[in-house]
Amino acid sequence: MIKGASGQYGRVSVDRLKWAATQNRIGLGLAAVGRPGYINLGRDRDLPGERTVEALRERSHRLLDEAYARGVRYFDVARSYGRAEEFLASWLDGHPEAVVGSKWGYTYTAGWRVDADVHERKDHSVATYDRQVAESRLLLGDRLDLYQIHSVTPESTALTDDALHERLAVLRSRGVTVGFSTSGPGQAEAIRRGLDVEVDGRPLFQSIQSTWNILEPSAGPALAEAHDRGRFVIVKEALANGRLAPIDQEALGAVLAQPFVDIVLSGAATVEQLASNLGARAEGPEEYWARRATMPWR
């Protein structure tokens, strides 16, 4: 178990994230199973035909059980992932080493429909933060270790809103790590702008979650800079929303090989996918050439 400054199990802010990464550098995200509609490929094959709340709750719990049994300790949800926070919250009892990250800034609007015109609405205002942090706390209580602004872009008001920054600094003072995730072609600029945000002379954001994969590696230099400046780095969409699923272990291994990555998320929708994802590992130059040398001529 992790010990806090008071000797009690639990709230050590970013230290809990760092500890989770020492247990397993792969974490589990529930974006694909917390709601009936998502953009990942293969969902008709991967999910139950009837995507009821109970069916996806059961699927989420199976994935969480399997991940925890295999040593995964970081679990990722968001307010906009349908009922993902609820599913995770109902599983947490009996899993004291689970480290939890969630996100605010998008509101789920699909009403548990796959065919909704709009599935989520983005709003980085103080009012949305106040509402959603209360909602997250109601479900997750003091198990919330990391709270991130969801999908920050260079033009996001979340990077310039002093009132919001003061709110986030209060949350940080209560032992929750404050971070942000990024999205879109301007990830690198958003990351660098976020690194410079300070409250009372201290950097506000301690964790950054960004898309990086072998098809879209453009955020790499900015993430390396963030890591060098002491930020915890989480990589999402390592399989490009299913486009790289046929080579999942190689694609995840490529992420794990990046020195700036602390944790990479599996977005598995089935236990079989999760097991395959967890078989990924980084392959360094020496191992690459050693394996090459053993390949027979045909």
Sequence-ordered SSE layout with sheet pairings:
Layout lengths: L13 H10 L2 E4 L13 H4 L6 H17 L4 E3 L7 H6 L9 E6 L1 E3 L11 E3 L3 H15 L3 E9 L9 H12 L3 E6 L4 H9 L2 E2 L2 E2 L3 E5 L8 H9 L3 E5 L11 H9 L6 E4 L4 H7 L7 H9 L5
Parallel strand pairs: 1-2, 1-12, 2-3, 3-6, 6-7, 7-10, 10-11, 11-12
Antiparallel strand pairs: 4-5, 8-9
Helix pairs in contact: 7-8
Characterization of the model:
By secondary structure, this protein is of the alpha/beta class. The chain contains 11 helices and 12 strands. The protein has helices spanning 14-23, 43-46, 53-69, 84-89, 126-140, 162-173, 187-195, 220-228, 248-256, 271-277, 285-293; strands spanning 26-29, 74-76, 99-104, 106-108, 120-122, 144-152, 177-182, 198-199, 202-203, 207-211, 232-236, 263-266. The strands form 3 sheets. An 8-stranded parallel β-barrel has the order 1-2-3-6-7-10-11-12, surrounded by 7 helices. The protein has a two-stranded antiparallel ribbon with strand order 4-5. A two-stranded antiparallel ribbon has the order 8-9. α7 (187-195) runs parallel beside α8 (220-228). The chain is globular and about 65 Å long. The termini are far apart. 43% of the residues are buried.
